[in-house]
Every structure is written in structure tokens, then in C-alpha cells.
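Subject: Sanity check before I submit

Could someone independently write out the C-alpha cells for this chain? I want to compare against mine line by line before I put it in a report. The sequence has 377 residues.
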Amino acid sequence: MLISSWLRGWSLPTRRVRSLGTHSELLEQRIVPAVNVTDAAAFVVTLTSTDSVTIGVDEDGFVTINGVAKTTLAANVTSLKVNCTGNFINEIDLSGVDGSFSNLSGVSVSAGGGNDSVLGSSLNDTLIGGDGNDSIEGGEGIDVVNGMAGNDALGGGDGADSIYGGNGDDTLDGGTGNDRLRGQNGNDSITGGDGNDTLEGFAGNDKLIGGDGNDSLLAAGGNDFCDGDGGNGDGSDFKDTIYGDSGSDTIRGGDGDDYINGGAGNDIIGGNDGNDALYGLGGKDSITGQAGDDSIYGGNDNDFLLGDEGDDNIHGGSGNDTLVGNAGVDTLDGQSGTNTVVLGDGAGDDDGDSVVGSSSEIEEYFGVDDSWTADIS
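---
Independent answer below. Compare away.
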């Protein structure tokens, strides 16, 4: 329900008419959302139909609702809430709530059941989407954003934010700051952005992109794609920690010295640049160290392990594994199972590659311009 404000179209404190128009124009100008002021310091704005609300402050320091100045100074407000009822489409703009609200520590919004758009303030906001496909941006401050149900687009903006997708296929973007992003249920796309972020996919087939910073990625359930740096090729030197958990995951480490744990499932893991520690654990994994001096562990099952560039240490674990050293001076240890070992080309005056394992554990080996030694146990 909307109420009429006969103050709209008047200026404070003189109350002079600013403009004249047709009766329909004046009626349109006077319609504002219901505002419940329990006392001079507490504002509750309630939207009961499809409507928009913009909250800010005028040049005299008074609170404005859709451009209409109230009788309360922004500096006196200690509580500000926006509540939406029903399954209506609402637009909520709090970008005008700034440092003028000097006694207001934060703002809360409950967007309701429609497809709502919410733009947060420069303070610490709690923004709840509810049902519907919502678009929520936290803005400045340390914000909590929760999409709840629906396929939501959620952004933290500046600050160290906490973002929760809830149910549905959501898009989460941390922006700047050290953020925590959790997709929860659904097939989610999660981007950390700048800062040292924590990304958690949980249920569904999720896409996790760490971005800049030393990020921690947890894929959890589903067949997920994880990329520590976002594949931007900018030569960044951040150290990412990535856990694949269950499911058949595709994981890329980025350019720093990364720790990657594939967990259960048949995973594809690439370390990229940096000196990486790469673990396949359960499942039939394909692991490539790429550039850098990497440590690669296959874990349980029949794995394919490629050191690629750099001086790598490759361990097959249990299962019948294929270990490939490629360039660099590598150490290859098949461990349990019947393994195939392919040696690379030791560069320059280096001694070449080393193969560790009993003769019964090595089914085939191939050397390329290497002299290798077997540690027979």
C-alpha cells in the first residue's frame, strides 16, 4: 500500500512550492512508500506493492525518501530498515546513505518475494533477497548479502563482505576486500575479485574463480571448475589453496606457489606457474605440474602424472600410474602398483632424472637423453 505525502513538491524548511503541473503529475509526485517512524531515530520503510524507494540526505542534512525531505536529521537516525511484502518487483537504492548518517552503524533490507534490485549504502549493510531472481550490490562497507531462493546476482562491492547464494543458480562477485563467498545449493559462478578471498561452492556444479590475492577455494559437492587466478595471464604471484572434495573437478592453480587437493573423484589438475604441491587423492586423476619445481602426488587409483617444466618430484601412490618427467631434472617414484615411467631431458650439465622403485613395480620406462638410476628396494 502506498500513502500520499502532501510534503512532496515542497522544500524544507521554507515549505515553498517548487513546481506546478497537471493534477496527474502532482498526484504522481506525492506518492511515496509507507514510512513507519517509531521514534525520531528509527526508520522502517515498507513496500507493499511494486514500487521503488531511494533513501538519502538533502543539503540541509534531513533524511529524504524518494526526494521528499522528512523532519528527521540524518545524523539522528540510529536504525534504518527496508521491508518488502508480497511477490512484487521492488527497486531499493541506498547509495545516498553515507557518512551524514553518523550514528547509523548499518542498514538492513528484506527484499521479499519478487525479482528485486537492491543497491547498498556506504555503511555496513545486511541485504536479504528472499524469493525471486534478485540483483543485490553491497556497495562500500562490510556487508552481508544473502540471495536466498532464486537465481540471484550478488556483489559485495568494497569491503570484507560475506555473500551467500542460497538456493538457485547464483552469480557471486566479491569485488575488492577479503571476502567470503558461499554458493550453497545450485550451479553457481563465484568470483573472488581482489583481496584474499575464501570461495566455497558446496552443492551443485560450480565455477570458482579466485582472482587476485591469496585465495582459498573449496569446491565441495558436484563436478566443479576451480581457477586460482582466473586465467588472466597477468603474471600475478599469489598463493592459492584449492580443495576439490567429492566430484570430478577441473582445477587450475594460477601463477603462484599453490596447494591443490583434488579430493575424491576423477580430477584434472594443473599447477600452472609457481612451485606447486598437487594432490590427486581418490579417483583416476590427471595432474600436470606445468612450470615451476612441483611436488605431485597421485594418491589412490590409476593416475596420469606429468611434471612438465621444472625439476619435479612425482609420486604415484597406490594404483597403476603413468609418471612423465618431461623437461628438467625430475625424481619419479611409482610407489605401489605397476607403473609406467617416462623420463624427460635433463637440461645442461645436470645428472638427469632419478627413478625410485623396485623392478617389479616398474612395468615400462622410457628415457630421452637421460642416465637414470633405480633405487632398488
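---
OP: Matches mine. For the report I'm noting this point. Residues 214-366 form one domain.
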